[in-house]
Design goal:
Layout (H helix, E strand, L loop, with lengths): L9 H4 L6 H5 L1 H25 L3 E12 L2 E10 L6 E8 L5 E9 L6 E9 L6 E8 L12
Antiparallel strand pairs: 1-2, 2-5, 3-4, 3-6
Length: about 150
């Protein structure tokens, strides 16, 4: 007698609730779904951002004077037979960008090469760094006849 379900008027007591057994699997199922979505997003992000065709790292910098910084970058490419472009910049002590320059890295036989360039600044710089590198070389950087 005690295990029988009693039908109660919905107008007075509200809609009947789901059993606890039914509710117990909802939270783990939602957790698994959220984790699966997170793994899928991470996989897509890694495939698009994780393996760059070209990577530029700061090799060193030297503040030449109040308006000039010399920046050396180490550039590693998957295919060294193609030219790439790197953006190097100078920043002031407070972190503001005070100078920027695009540098053409010509084709080479080595996977990793070093390029050194001078960056003209609008005021005294504290550091030089590599903003990034890419394979989309603008036409104005390609030498005539190349």
């Amino acid at each position: 007698m005690q295990n029988e379900m009693i039908d109660r008027p919905a107008g007075r007591y509200g809609a009947p609730r789901r059993s606890r057994r039914h509710r117990r699997w909802i939270v783990p199922a939602l957790t698994i779904a959220v984790l699966a979505a997170g793994v899928a997003i991470a996989a897509v992000a890694f495939s698009r951002l994780g393996s760059a065709e070209v990577k530029g790292e700061l090799g060193g910098y030297r503040v030449v004077d109040d308006r000039t910084v010399e920046v050396t970058a180490s550039v590693t490419r998957d295919d060294p037979a193609h030219a790439v472009v790197c953006i190097v910049r100078a920043r002031s002590y407070d972190g503001d960008e005070v100078g920027r320059r695009e540098v053409l890295v010509p084709p080479s036989t080595a996977d990793t090469v070093q390029v050194t360039t001078l960056v003209t600044t609008s005021r005294r710089a504290a550091v030089g760094d590599v903003y990034g590198c890419g394979t989309d070389v603008p036409a104005y950087l390609v030498p005539a006849g190349a």
